[in-house]
Amino acid sequence: MSVIADFSIFPIGRGESLSPYAARAVAVVKASGLPHIVGPMGTSVEGEWDEVLSVIDACYKALEPDCGRVYATVKFDCRKGRRDGLTAKTRVVAALLGPET
Fold it and tell me: Which terminal residue of the chain has fewer beta carbons within 10 Å of its beta carbon, N or C?
C-alpha cells in the first residue's frame, strides 16, 4: 500500500530559528532515497508504511540526542495501487485548473 506522510518535526525551546534542526531532519529524508517534497511548513514522503514510519523515526532520533523536547505532526494518506502519488495529486489539480493566465 502506498503511503504519503506529510510531517513536520522540530525541537521546543531551541530559540526562534529552527532551520538547522529542520535541515537535519530533511537530510535524513533525503538519505532514505524515498520520493519526497520539502515544503515551507513540512515535508511529504512517499513509500510503503514501514519505510515511511522508519524515516519519521530516524528524523526523531536525529534530533533527540541534543533536544530535550521534540514536537511532531504527521498526516497520512494510504492508498492501494497508487504510484507516484506525490506528483500525481498536484498534477491532477493543476490540470483541472487549466492553463495559467
Answer: C
